[in-house]
Amino acid sequence: MDLKGRWYRLTINNNTTNVQTVISNTLNIAFKVGKRIDHTKSLPEATVDIYNLSDDTLRAISGKYVTVVLEVGYQYTDSTGALQDNTAPILVGASLYNTSKRVGHDRVTTLHVTEGYLPLHSAIISVSFPPSTTLLGVIQGAVQAANALTASPLAIGKVLPSVLTTPLVSGWCHMGTLQTLLNTLAKAYNFTWGINKGVVQFHDKHGTSSAAIKQATVLSSDTGLIRVPTPHEYSFSDLNPDSGKNEKAVRYVGVRLECLLNPHLGPGSVLQVQSLESQFNHWYLIRDIDFVGEWMGASWECVILADQANAVG
Fold first, then answer.
1. Over 50: is that where the pLDDT of 136 sits?
2. 93-129 pLDDT tens trace
C-alpha cells in the first residue's frame, strides 16, 4: 500500500512501572484528536486505536495515568536524497483507561486520552497573590504550583490577550484545581483558554491579534485544501455588561474546511484561505480542529471549523 510518506510515532510512558513503549510506523494505528479553542466546559479528549499489540506490550501500557504523546505527519526522501520531515506532536495527554476488542481478525486496543488531565484536573493547588498582581501573574503562579505536583508540566502560550495585564486590586486566593481557577478567571474577565500539546493558550473572545494574522498559514489546493469550503453556524455565550449574565449569540461568519493532515495547525491558528469559491477567501481563526487518520487507511486529514479573523489590538 502506498502510504505517501505518512509517518507516526506513539510514545507511551507508564508512570507506575517507569516503562516506556515507542511504536513507530510498524503496527497500524487510527486516531481522532479533537481540539477546541475554549475548554472552559470540558478538557479535550482523543482516542488512539492500536492494532494487534502483543500481550506483553498491552500489559506494559496498562495502568493509571499513563502519559501519551502522538506525533504524526509526513517523512520522505526527496529526489536529491535529502530527508524531508514535516512531523509534529498533535496529542500530549494522559490515558485514563484503555479497552480492547476483536474486529475481524484484529485485536484493536483503544487509548482514551485527555489532554492536560493531570496538571489541570488532578492536582489540587493552594495559592495566594498580593494586591495588584496581574491576571497573568496569577495564572503563571498557579501553573507553576500545578506543575510541581505532576509529571506532565504545562507551559503558557506566547500570544496573550491584553486583558491578562489587568491588575487585581484585591489580589487573589485559590484552593482547588487549576482548571477551576482558569474557568473562574475566564468567566470574570471575558476571555477563553484552552490546552494544546501541553501549552495553555489564551484568546480574546472577539478576535485575534494583528500580528497573528500576519503569520497566517495559506490554505489552498496547492497546500492541502481538499473539497469545497462550506459555511457553518457558530454559537457562543457572551457576557452582557448591562445584566452581568451570559447571553447566547449566533454568528454566521464561520467556515468548515477540510485539508490534508497538517500537524502544525491548532486552535487559535490563523488561516488565509485561497479557494476557487472566492466568497470564502478570507483570514480565519481556527476554533475547532479534528485530526483524523489511519496509518494504513484512507483518512489522514484535518476537519476545521473557523471564524473570520477580526484583528484586535
1. yes
2. 999 889 999 999 999 999 999 999 989 998 999 999 9
| Contact yes or no for 10/70 (Cβ under 8 A) | yes
> Taking each helix axis from N to C terminus, what angle separates 178-189 and 135-147, rounded to the nearest 10 degrees?
170
* Grid coordinates belonging to 224: 492541502
**What would the pLDDT profile of 12-46 be if each residue is shown by its tens digit?**
999 888 999 999 999 999 999 999 999 988 888 99
Q: Each residue of 229-261: b (16+ CB within 10 Å) or e?
A: beebebeeeeeeeeeeeeeeeeeeebbbbbbeb
C-alpha–C-alpha distance, residues 23 and 8, integer Å: 8
Q: Using alpha carbons only, how large is the chain's radius of gyration in Å?
A: 21
Say yes or no to pLDDT of 1 above 50.
Answer: no
pLDDT tens column, 197-232: 999 999 887 655 555 666 789 999 999 999 899 998
Closest residue by Cα to residue 200 from 37, 11, 1 = 37
Which is it for strands 155-156 and 199-204: parallel, antiparallel or unpaired?
A: parallel
Which fold would CATH assign to domain 6-115? Pnp Oxidase; Chain A (2.30.110)
| DSSP helix, strand, coil percent of the chain (3-state; round to 5) | 15, 55, 30
Topology of the domain comprising 208-312 = Elongation Factor Tu (Ef-tu); domain 3 (2.40.30)
| Per-domain residue ranges of the chain | 6-115, 118-204, 208-312
Q: Residue 313: is its pLDDT beyond 50? A: no
| pTM of the predicted model as reported, rounded to 2 decimal places | 0.88
